[in-house]
TrEMBL record:
Superkingdom, taxonomy of origin: Bacteria
InterPro entries in alphabetical order: Nucleoside_phosphorylase_d, Nucleoside_phosphorylase_sf
Protein name: Uridine phosphorylase
PANTHER family named in the record: FI09636P-RELATED, URIDINE PHOSPHORYLASE
Span of domain Nucleoside phosphorylase: 33-260
GO biological process: purine nucleoside catabolic process
Top enzyme class: transferase
Alphabetical list of Gene3D superfamilies matching this protein: Nucleoside phosphorylase domain
UniProt xrefs under CDD domains: UP_TbUP-like
Source species of the chain: Roseivirga ehrenbergii (strain DSM 102268 / JCM 13514 / KCTC 12282 / NCIMB 14502 / KMM 6017)
EC assignment: 2.4.2.3
Molecular function as annotated in GO: purine-nucleoside phosphorylase activity; uridine phosphorylase activity
Amino acid sequence: MKKRTIPESELILTGEGAIYHLGLHPEMVADTVIVVGDPARVAKISKFFDRIDFQITNRELVTHTGELNGKRISVISSGMGTDNVEILMTELDALVNVDLKKREVKDKLKRLKIIRIGTSGCMQPDIPLDSFLVSKAALGMDSLMSFYPWVESEEGQVIGNKVQRTLGLSIRPYLSEASTLLLKEFQGPQMYSGVTVTAPGFYAPQGREIRLRPFLPDYLDRLSKINTSFGQITNFEMETAGYYAMAKMLGHEMISFNALIANRPNHQFSPNAEKTVNGLIEWVIERL
Ligand SMILES: O=P(O)(O)O[C@H]1O[C@H](CO)[C@@H](O)[C@H]1O
Ligand SMILES: O=c1cc[nH]c(=O)[nH]1
């Protein structure tokens, strides 16, 4: 069967042949990729590398690729939100699985290992501030999956329906899961686990009120009391559900780690957030 040629307006390359938003060429991407939200966090990770081969910046998308203990690793920042995650994941996948010259999907597809290191707010009062948490699954409160052929597990549908009903939400959240392979590879002490809520915003979508009152009553309280087959709903951030769903559809392994720098029911924000994030970076680096 003749392969589809991807048009220039869909797979966009710069004059130098780099992919449109990431600004990368295929040889600049390692098989193990660490993703972060904050562009400034990229250098905090690549400083552990023995050697940095490429440093590329375009908008909020910063990439450092190098070597650590003989292993090639890329670190890429996405900025905030699942809309950026969609761009990062699609272009990252195209760099390894599309022949950019022919504009055709390759016959042999690569499976990347992708690890998120991010910050997050905890909604369980008994998980201490500055803890680390791995997202076993994530609930996407955004609309990204309405635009993809996302096939949800039965378990996911049950959880999504339960959350929609309990909160009185107009949208049905989607549930996506961590890679079981990476959950086994990245084990160790000091790591809580739970279900992460990926919010389409930092304020009302995470139950915060500054001047505008969140529309949904008792949001935080109701969410934190929901039990799922993956455990309690534990924390808020803004990318993981999009990452897990895109990774699943594109055939990559993905895991998301959270530094819990806020505890919402206890009204705390960490005075040591920077130290906690650095601790999580070291925890992950030690297990690469
Ligand atoms: O620290 P990062 O990785 O950016 O992650 C979290 O912090 C940002 C909000 O402050 C959102 O991107 C959220 O997901
Ligand atoms: O509360 C928090 C802290 C970090 N990131 C979030 O998205 N929420």
